[in-house]
Amino acid sequence: MKNLLLTTCLLLVAMGSVLAQLPVLEQYIRQGLQSNLSLQRQQQSLEKAQLALQEAKGLFYPSLSFLSDYNYANGGRKIDLPLGDLFNPIYQSLNQLQQGQKFSNIPNQQVLFLPNNFQDTRLQASMALINTEIWYNYKIHREMITQQQAMVNVYKRNLVKDLKAAYYNYLNSLRQQDIYNNAATLLKEQYRSTSSLVNNGKALRGNLLKVDADIHQNDALLTAATNDVQVAKAYFNFLLNQPLETPIPADTSVYAAALPDTVPALSAAAVTGRDELKVLQSGLTQTNLQVKMKQAAYVPELSTFINGGYQGTGYTFSSDQRYLFGGVSLKWTLFNGNQRRAQLKQAEVDRSSLQNQLAETQQQLALELTTAQTNLHNAQARLGSALASQSATREYYRETKVRYAEGLVLLLEVSDAFTQFVNSQLAYQLALTEVLTREAELEQVTAAYPL
To answer: Where is this protein found (predicted)?
Structure first.
C-alpha cells in the first residue's frame, strides 16, 4: 500500500513537472479541453452513443422474464352442457338392471367462458434466432460512435482555435493598454516642455490647452483599453469554465510565431483528414446500412421461446399445476402495402443526399483552406508594413520633438507626429494579433493541432 501511494505521488509530481515546462497557452489549451462545458456536453453525447451500442448488443442475448397472471370472473357468457339429459337415462337403465340405486342422477352444467380463480405463474425465456433488423441496428449504433467521436474532435479543434484567438486578443488588449500608458507619459513630458516654452516666451499659452486636451483624450482611450482587458480576460476564463475574474498571465513568447512570409504551400489534399468529413462519411456508412437493412426486410424472422411454471385454479403450486411449454415462432411478411419498398426508397434518397453533402463539404473545406492561406498571407504583409511604419513614425516623432523643444516647429507638427506614432504602434499590435489568429485558423482548417 505504501509503495502504491509513493508511486502515485511520483506520477503526479512528474505530470506537474511536464505541465510546468509547457508554454502558458498550451497549458490553458489542455485545461480547456478538460473543463469546457460545451465540450463536456459533446463527450456526454459520445458516452450516450456507447451506451446505446451496449443496448443494441443486448438484443442478441436471450431475455428471461418472470410473469404472473391471476383471473377473477363473475358472470359473463356461459355454455350449457346437458350432462344430466345425456347420462341420467343411462344411469336409470343401469339401476333397473342391477335393481338398485348405484348410479345417482347428475344435473346439467353451466360453464363460464371467463376463468375464475385462475392463475398462471411462470418464467419465460425468449431469443431471436434470425432477425436482420437486430444485426444491422447493432452495426448502425457502432458506426454512430465513430461519428460522435469525430464530432467531439470537430468541437475540440474549434475550441483550440477559439482559445488561441481569445488569448491573443487578451494580449492585444494588454499591449494597447501599455501603449496608452506610454502615450500618457509622453504627453506629460510634452506638457512640461510646452510649459517651459510658454514661460520663455517661445510658445503661446493656447498650446498648453491643446496638450491638455490631448491628455484627456488619451485618458479616455486608456479607460476603454482597460475595460477591453477585463472583457477579454472574462471571455477567456469563460472558455476555460473558471471564474471570470481569474488572473491570466501574459506570455509574450507567442509573438515569436508571428513571422512574415511563412505561409506553407498546401494543396486541397490537406483537408482530407478533417473530422467534418469523417462525420459525413460515417453518416453515409450508416445510411448504407439502413438501405441494406430495408433490403433484408424480406428475410423471415425466427425466434424461440420456452415457458415454465405453475398454472391452475388457486395458488397450490402442486405437481398437477406445474407445466413446461415452448416453441419456435416464424414471421415472414409477404405483403404490407408496399411499405418496405417505400422505406427502401427513402433510405436510398437519404444516401444520395448525404453523398451530395459530402461532395459539397469537400469543396467547402478546400475553399476554407484557400481562404485561410490568403488571409494569413495578407495579415503577414500588413505586419511587415506595420513594422516598417512603426520604425519610421518613432524616428519622425523623436526628431519632431527635438525640433519642437528648440522652438523650430509648431505644436501642430508634434501632435501630428505623436498621433502617427501611437497609431502605428496600435496598428502593429493589431497586425501581430491578426497574424497569430490567422495562423490558428489555418491550423484548424488543416486539422494540424495534435489532439
So the answer is: Cell outer membrane
Whether residues 287 and 147 share a domain: the answer is yes
Mean pLDDT of all residues in 20-46: 88
Integer Cα distance of 398 and 439 in angstroms: 34
Q: How far apart are CA 142 and CA 53, in angstroms?
A: 6
What's the whole-number average pLDDT of the chain? 88
d(CA 118, CA 316): 11
Residue 11 lies in a domain: no
Condensed to tens digits (0 to 9), the pLDDT of residues 179-196 reads 999 999 999 998 898 888
Kindly state whether residues 69 and 146 are assigned to the same domain.
yes
CB atoms within 10 A of CB 202: 14
Set of cell numbers at residue 63: 431475455
Query: Do 150 and 92 fall into the same domain?
Result: no
Q: How far apart are CA 437 and CA 440, in angstroms?
A: 5
pLDDT at 248 over 80: yes
The residue assigned the cell 342391477 is 98
Of the candidates 67, 70, 114, 125, which has an alpha carbon nearest to the alpha carbon of residue 312? 70
* Helices (H), ranges, 254-410: 275-295, 339-405
Helix (H) or strand (E) holding 121: strand 118-130
Whether residue 323 is contained in a domain is answered as: no
Cα–Cα nearest to 143, from 26, 36, 293:
293
**pTM attached to this predicted model:** 0.81
CA distance 221 to 223: 5
Edge-first strand order for the sheet with 301-313 is 63-71, 118-130, 301-313, 322-331
Residue span of the structural domain in which 106 resides: 78-113
pLDDT at 260 (0 to 100): 56
Phi-psi region of 76 (alpha: psi -120 to 50; beta: other; left: phi over 0): left
The DSSP code sequence of 297-312 is GGSPEEEEEEEEEEEE
Q: Which three cell numbers stand for residue 93?
A: 337403465
